[in-house]
Amino acid sequence: MIANSRTEEDGVLVTRMAKKFMREVKSPRDAVDFCTRILVPVDPHVRQCHSWVWGKLPRLELTEIIPGTETASVTILEAFNRVLGRNLEIEELADLLAIAKCTGAKRILEVGTFDGTTTLNLAANTAADALVVTLDLPPDWDGELSLPTPKEFRNATAKRDVGRRFRDTPYEPKIRQVYGDSAKLDWSTLPGPFDLIFVDACHHYNYVLSDTQNALKYAHAQKGLIIWHDYGYVKDVSDVVDETSAKIKVQAIAGTRMAVGFVGTKP
User: What is the rounded distance in angstroms from the CA atom of residue 34 to the CA atom of residue 63?
Assistant: First the structure.
């Protein structure tokens, strides 16, 4: 049923695009411009979407993946104070918050703090007694990682920026900042098991695999969720997620670079 629905939607979009071409293209120059803008969009947001080329999982609407999200309301703090390509897009953040809210997640682990925007919003959209644990490399990091990682994947956040968005906010008491190399850290020292683990740190295969293996071990065995960012966008992330989908149920969220894994649920 879902596959048929997707095929129908794709057909509608193709038909609309064909009609738009016939209606608006009046000259060979128009045709060149039309096709060029489709292949090379001028908007950086659209260009980013065009690079979501990896992964084998079909894209499903969030409401199909997490029932109840169709009526969810979330609060997004500092919604437009974002860095394109580094922070989550608005729809991605809204979907993540809706998942946390609708599933009643109270123990959340974020692997990869960056500036703390996601951390702040998770704290703002969960119960008063919820705890958001966020992990990032230590301020005195010497540039070495415990797993073999090419230089281009070593994109540590500057010391002054790690978690700065949630500092001195009313939500900071709900947040626990942890520093360490995620592949070297003893995850048993973290206050799990976790209802939701958001994996968005080093995107090299070795680290995504290590973070995923730890997440599978320390997520709640019956109701735990693992959410990966940059599925479809980064090949290494997509490869690990696709491999994990053979072990547990994993679904990719349409309109986002996120995939959701259901711990304890067979594919």
Answer: 34
Non-local CB neighbours of 243 within 8 Å, separated by 6+ positions: none
Number of alpha carbons in the 13 Å side-chain half-sphere of residue 248: 24
Confirm if 145 and 154 have CB atoms less than 8 A apart.
Answer: yes
CA 266 to chain CA mean position, Å: 22
Q: CA 79 to CA 76: how far, in whole Å?
A: 6
pTM of the model: 0.90
Helical axes 28-39 vs 2-24, angle rounded to 10°: 150
> What confidence tier does 2 reach under pLDDT thresholds 50, 70, 90?
very low
CA distances from residue 46 to 76, 85, 237, 265 in whole angstroms, order as listed: 22, 12, 21, 34
pLDDT by residue (tens digit) across 62-73? Answer: 999 999 999 999
Q: Helices in the chain by DSSP H: which ranges?
A: 2-24, 28-39, 44-50, 62-65, 90-102, 117-124, 205-218, 235-244
Position 90 confidence tier, pLDDT thresholds 50, 70, 90: very high
**Using CB atoms within 10 A of its CB, is residue 115 exposed (0-12), middle (13-18) or buried (19+)?**
buried
Per-residue pLDDT at 179:
96
Instruction: Kindly give, in sequence order, each residue whose CB lies less than 8 Å from that of residue 64, ignoring residues fewer than 6 positions away.
Output: 2
Q: Are 147 and 206 in contact (CB under 8 A)?
A: yes
DSSP 194: B
